[in-house]
Structure prediction request, 149 residues.
Amino acid sequence: MALKIRLARAGNKKRPYYHIVIADARAPRDGRFIERIGAYNPMLPKDSEERIKLDADRAKHWLSVGAQATDRVARFLDAAGLLKRKARNNPIKAEPGEKAKERVETKAKAAADAKTAAEEAAAAPAPAEEVVVEDAPVAEAAAEEAKAE
Prediction:
């Protein structure tokens, strides 16, 4: 039988309260347990002494029998000095996903293309402005109308 030291949820909706229990690993989270060795109230401030209540002697006994603590309970036991918890590190978690990487690449490519286009436009000589010459008959007709008035 695999024993776990874990949290069993109690309390109301949106007002959690947890019991620290010894239970069979196959038992439901809030179901049958062997012994209750403490309580955890996450609603209290972190510096409050009432936030975590733990019977250290019973926890030490169950650890010696071979019970495995869950990650959250292992934090509590580490703070109490009963168990040394390994520091966990997952540097891959901070990396962006595949689609985010693709978006960054396309943005960088678009920015590079725009920059090269701007440089090419600046390097190319400016086209000479075309002088528009009005047709002579139209200009003469306009001049004759001005004289007539």
